[in-house]
Write a structure and sequence with these properties.
mainly alpha
């Protein structure tokens, strides 16, 4: 008897009321004697058929119904089937199977049928080619051979009781999805050889068509699928693409514009579970780079849903590994706690600490030694300089926050080592903005920086690492402590004398770097640490001297142009030289004042045309 018809009846869209009409159509000639109730819906089985058809059809195929009929004492019994998988719809299909009616087994009903058959005990023990065998054939020959059908069946398992796990439907679908996805990638790799003329977007869409299908799964099944894919050899970048699509589908607030509005589609507990699971599923292979925008989105979401500490620390560690590629907008993470600072400074501080630990480990692994050819900037030192500029910009951005405590601001400054900055202009600008904001926001926070706190902030500024423009500004900045202004003027005098004498600046190097001869009283570990510090100082001095040389070259070109202009107008050569030198120093009050005004004017123009961030030093 063939139960899967070539011209099947469609059943998936029928309403529960049709179950009664189906029963009434078969047994409308005799009053009902036996009633089977499934989740409140009655199926009428008439006595003449009980004695003949039911005995040889239902009872012969379903061990459970046979036992219930045999145990029924009343001739007009009312039998109840509790917790049958698939409910009345699955039971009706099972009845159709028993009575030989045609219907189609599909990917949308095979899981319900298989579980219902297991519940009704419709095995080969009672009849050959029973419902369990028929559904197993469909699962093995149709479902597991197709990635799309495997996803559909796994989706239907989400509404089934644990009996689906007992018969192994989800596990087979999970393995089938992983295996078929791996096959798809192998076939796609071959097809790419013949589609060089197609766009990259079209290729990506052809290769990863199953990414959207996986987003229909619940997070528990999705996690199992991703684990299976990783074991099967699916490319990590494909897994990352799937993670990103699943996050965008399941977490509606993953975008930057909506990140601080909690999505209403899922309870907070489910959101937390999804965020923690997705972070744990990110590939650990260093060759697979998860997009930084996605990692920062997950970091923001983990903060918003109050994810586990271990989860947040893991995503922070991943970000710290590539901090030199981060932009300023990425680390401007708003704080969700009321009454605190506007930005989540603590999270950025932890990321920065993790980054410095990574740099320390990389430097420990370096084998180049301390020969002269290795004095140039190493990759780790270059990354550190990039992060130093990033943090200076970050400090300038958060400085106007009236609720930012001086302790957090200082902690962000002092966590970076001195050799992370070649020039302290960015740090000076950030501190100046913070000092200016502290005077403007007294009415808001009811506090004002003390003189000691101002001195503590300014001590982080190395006056020898300030550019000419920053020195000119600092010399006239009334917000700075007097000691800071005196230091700036002193080093400007030393710098000017050095420039006029033609000295290359070796005096600074000799003052800042020790002789390099290890002390006999020092341990080998201390000697190594001392040599490494001196190596860093050498790298820093070389970078600083290059910047100073560039400034002197610019001044030389400016003086040469001035001499040519003045000489052409009949001016004497010595007069031109004296005026050109006067423009270099801080002792020519009128010329310095004009230049300061010009600098302020140029910065004002830049402020109008650029972004709306605080780049002004005034």
């Amino acid at each position: 008897m063939g139960m899967v018809s070539e011209n099947p009846l469609a059943f998936s869209n029928r309403s529960p009321k049709l179950s009664n009409s189906f029963t009434t159509r078969i047994f409308s000639d005799v009053a009902g004697d036996i009633t089977i109730v499934v989740r409140g819906e009655s199926f009428l089985l008439h006595k003449p058929y009980v004695s003949v058809l039911l005995k040889f059809l239902l009872v012969s195929r379903s061990g459970k119904i046979g036992k219930m009929v045999a145990e029924a004492k009343d001739s007009a019994a009312k039998l109840e089937l509790h917790n049958i998988p698939g409910g009345p719809q699955a039971f009706e299909l099972a009845m159709k199977f028993c009575y030989g009616m045609n219907f189609e087994i599909t990917s949308t009903n095979v899981a319900h049928l298989r579980c219902a058959a297991e519940f009704l005990e419709m095995s080969e023990e009672y009849r050959d080619e029973n419902l369990i065998e028929r559904t197993e054939i469909y699962l093995n020959e149709v479902v597991v051979q197709s990635l799309e059908k495997s996803v559909e069946v796994l989706t239907t398992c989400q509404t089934l009781p644990p009996i689906a796990e007992e018969v192994g439907i989800p596990s087979r679908c999970v393995e089938a999805i992983a295996t078929n996805a791996c096959k798809e990638q192998l076939m796609a790799g071959l097809s790419m050889l013949n589609c060089d003329g197609e766009s990259a977007e079209l290729k990506s869409g052809c290769l990863e068509w199953w990414v959207e299908d996986l987003s229909l799964l619940r997070i528990e099944y999705y996690q199992r699928v991703i684990f299976a894919m990783a074991r099967s050899g699916v490319r990590p970048d494909s897994i990352v693409a799937s993670l990103m699509h699943f996050a965008q589908t399941s977490l509606k607030g993953i975008g930057k514009c909506q990140i601080w509005k909690k999505p209403d589609s899922l309870p907070e507990h489910d959101q937390r579970t999804i965020v923690e699971t997705l972070i744990s599923l990110m590939p650990t292979d260093k060759s697979c780079l998860v997009p930084l925008s996605f990692m920062f989105g997950m970091l923001r979401m983990s903060v918003m849903v109050d994810a586990a500490i271990a989860c947040r620390l893991e995503i922070e560690r991943r970000i710290a590994y590539r901090l030199e590629m981060v932009t300023l907008d990425d680390i401007l993470i708003p704080s969700i706690y009321a009454g605190g600072s506007l930005y989540d400074v603590d999270t950025v501080h932890r990321i920065l600490v993790n980054f410095l630990q990574r740099i320390e480990e990389e430097e420990d692994d370096e084998d180049c030694g301390y020969e002269s050819e290795c004095i140039g900037s190493s990759p780790s030192h270059g990354s550190l300089l990039k992060v130093g500029r990033l943090i200076d910009s970050y400090l300038a951005e958060i400085a106007p926050d009236p609720y930012l405590s001086v302790q957090k601001f200082v902690a962000m400054i002092e966590v970076l080592p001195d050799y992370a900055r070649v020039i302290d202009d960015g740090l000076y600008r950030a501190i100046d903005i913070y000092l200016k904001a502290s005077h403007q926001h007294i009415a808001i926070v009811h506090t004002m920086l003390t003189e000691q706190e101002c001195k503590k902030l300014c001590k982080f500024i190395d006056c020898q690492k300030l550019s000419q423009e920053a020195c000119n500004h600092a010399a006239q900045n009334d917000r700075l402590p007097v000691q800071m202004t005196v230091r700036v003027l002193y080093f400007e005098q030393v710098r000017l004398k050095t420039a006029l004498s033609g000295n290359s600046g070796d005096g600074f190097v000799s003052q800042r770097i020790s002789s390099g001869v290890p002390s006999a009283a020092m341990s080998p570990r201390d000697n190594y640490a001392s040599l490494r510090r001196e190596n860093r100082e050498l790298k820093l001095e070389i970078s600083r001297m290059r910047v100073r040389l560039s400034e002197l070259e610019k001044e030389q070109l400016f003086m040469k142009q001035e001499m040519m202009d003045k000489t052409g107008n009949g001016k004497t050569f010595l007069t031109s030289i004296s005026k050109g030198i006067g423009k270099m120093g801080i002792f020519s009050g009128q010329a310095g004042g004009k230049r300061q005004k010009s600098n302020r004017k140029s910065r004002g123009v830049e402020g109008k045309t650029g972004r709306s961030r605080r780049h002004s030093l005034s």
